[in-house]
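Figure 2 data, in text form.
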Amino acid sequence: MSNNQHTIKIDGVDIGKEYPCYIIAEIGVNHNGQLSLAKKLIDAAIESGANAVKFQKRNLQSLYRKESLANPNSESQGFEILLAELNEVELTKNDYIEIVDYCKEKKITFLCTPWDMPSVDFLEKLDTVTYKISSGDMTNFPLIKYASNTRKPLIISTGMSKIEEIEKMVSFVRTLNIPFVILHANSTYPSPIESLNLSLIPEFANRFDLLVGFSDHSVGIIGSVTAANMGAVIIERHITLDKTMKGLDHSSSLEPNEFNEMVTMIRLSERAKGKAIKKMTRAEVLQREVVSKSIVCVLDICEGEIFSENNIEAKGPEKGLSAQYFFDIIGKKSSRVIKSGEYVLEEDMS
């Protein structure tokens, strides 16, 4: 496989600059640990036009130090609060099995972020097709290498990182010889719009000769739509049924109507971008005939008479020789008699 990948495939769907933007509805932990809510979020993602839904899987015993788990307040107040929330929202193994089956039934791709190696092992048993590496694990090379052993594509977020770290990560992942995409991200929840710095999307694509997407944590849809217009091949966005729900990510997520609007705007912008081939539409051809100008004789011209600014003008509609040739025919002889008011034709120049 080439190190410089310009297309990858996720669950049979081609992803690249020549293909529609791949939309991931990040459910994450917005299910609040409830299987029924997880299914409702999957349904909402499908109705909103997402290509995939993404969850997060943690094994807290593997993820954190034994001492930190035993005495979380010894680390920091923030860690103690986070740990309590994570314990509250963790789904059971049977829940994940049912979620994967539900996604298959509903024909939407199931993706997941493993936060540790045991979670990779568990997700492999569920036949997970692609693994997302979070920004927090972009520098966790042991986890990246472990996930790469599955030979599945990786999607790697780059929030909270320095350019030197991203360069080192890209170089490292290339040695693993697997398909991967990097996601530009600002890991502030929510991200101020002026902090998104979406110009990094084409910059990263050019610098690394890689596919680049965007993991959006800003308010509203403008960041995601702009990112897609700037070349992001994947848009990842949190979805919730209600922003006012209690939980880590609800407030910076999109509700279903907003998510649907985002997808609609991205798809419309893709249609508007078209291809870099200049050609007139049928409607333009008809409009041009009405509003564009031709070269018209304003005096009778004899055969052999020289065209000058005194005997021709540019007038509509466009039926004869285009007015863009006006100065080209000045000084040339007419090959026939042309009456005043007649169009000058290309074959009239001798």
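Caption note: The chain has 13 helices and twelve strands.
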